[in-house]
Amino acid sequence: MQDISLLHGLGIKFVLVPGTHVQIDKLLADRGKKANYGGRYRITDSDSLDAAMEAAGRIRLTIEAKLSPGPPMLDLRRHGVNGRWHEISDNVASGNFLGAKRRGVVGGIDYGFTGEVKKIDVSRIKERLDRDSIVVVSNMGYSSSGEVLNCNTYEVATACALAIEADKLICVVDGQIYDEHGRVNRFMSIEEADMLIRTRAKQSETAANYVKVVGEEDISYAHNFPIKEEKEQVWVGRDFVSDYTASFRNGVGFNNGNGLSGEQGFAIGGAERLSRSNGYLSELAAAAYVCHGGVQRVHIIDGTVGGSLLLELFTRDGAGTLIARYIETLALS
Predict the structure, then answer these.
(1) Where is the Aspartate/glutamate/uridylate kinase domain (predicted)?
(2) For residues 93 and 96, what is the distance between their CA atoms, to the nearest angstrom?
C-alpha cells in the first residue's frame, strides 16, 4: 500500500480490485462452515454471502487505513503540477461500480448468490480518477433487483481493465511463473504466452476456455509469412498474432455475451487455485486475454517479495513476469 501511495503521488492512476477468497474461507472455517466450489466458482449460499460481505468490508477499510497516511515522502510534489504538493492522505473512492447478475444453475449446480459481471460504471470510475482518487472496486456486485452478489475477483479485474481501457493490468499473486528450466520467466510476448497456454491447456480449465474462445486452431507465428491464409494476420514487431479481439460491453458482458462469460468466465478459484499444480497458467490466460482486448502490458508479480511492485516497474529485469501486447523492434544498419 505504501508503494501504491508513492506511485499515486507521482501521478499514476490506480483502480484496485482486492481478492477476498482467502478471507472468506477463513471466516467460514471459524464459523464451522465449509467452503464449497463448483469447478472454479464459489457456491455462495447465505452463510458464504455473509462471510463475503464481511470480508469485502474489512478489506476495503484496511486499504483505506493503509493509504490514509499518504506517501512516505510527505513533501512529495505532484508530478507535472507546479506548486501543488501532496495532501497528508490519499483520497480513496469506493462504491457500487459493479453491476452483476446471478450465475444461476449451471451443469446441475445452483451457485446461489454467486454473480457474473455485467456492468462496470466506467464514467463514475473515471470521474473519481480525474479527481485524483485511488478507486477500489469490490468483487461484491449489485443486481438490477437489488441483490448483493459475490463475483470472482479475476472476472471483475479483467472486466475493469477492458472497460476502462487500462494501460496496464497488474496481478499480485503469491509466487512466480517459471520456465521449463526452473527459471523465473521475466518477459513473454502475447505470442509466446498464447503458445504456452495452448501447449498446457489441458492443465487448466481457464486455459482451455481461453483456447476455445480465442480460437481452437493453431495460430501461426511465422517471421516471414502467414501460414494460415484464411485467417487475417496482423504484424506485431516481427511476429503475427490472431485477429481475435477481446471486449467487454456494459449490460452484456464479455464479447457480446458469446465470449468469456457464463461457463467460460475467467474465474480462478476452487481446487485449481488451491493446488497451484499448473503454476500460474490461469493468470497467464487472463493476462493474454486482456492483451487481446487492447491492454498494452500485464505484470504478474509475487506479492510475497518486499517492494516487488517498484522492482517490477522500475528495474530492468523486474520482479515478476511481463506479458506485452506489442514488441518494438529496431532495424540497425
Answers:
(1) 2-192
(2) 10
Quote the mean pLDDT of the chain.
82
Segment holding 17, helix H or strand E: none
pLDDT confidence of residue 310? 95
* pTM for this prediction: 0.84
Q: Alpha-carbon distance 114 to 262, whole Å? A: 11
Q: How far is Cα 239 from Cα 273, in angstroms, rounded to an integer? A: 32
Distance CA 107, CA 65 (A): 42
Please determine, for residue 225, whether its predicted confidence score (pLDDT) is greater than 60: no
List, in sequence order, the alpha helices (H) in 189-280: 190-199, 205-214, 270-275
What's the pLDDT tens digit per position in 146-178? 999 999 999 999 999 999 999 999 999 988 888
Give the position of cell 473515471. 126
**Residue 106 CA to its chain's centroid (Å):** 24
What's the rounded Cα separation, in Å, for the pair 63 and 310?
Answer: 18
CA distance 33 to 50: 12
Instruction: Please list, in sequence order, all residues whose beta carbon lies within 8 angstroms of the beta carbon of residue 137, skipping any fewer than 6 positions away.
Output: 15, 16, 17, 94, 97, 98, 120, 125, 156, 160
* Neighbouring-strand partners of residue 173: 302
- Structure confidence at residue 242 as a pLDDT band (50, 70, 90): low
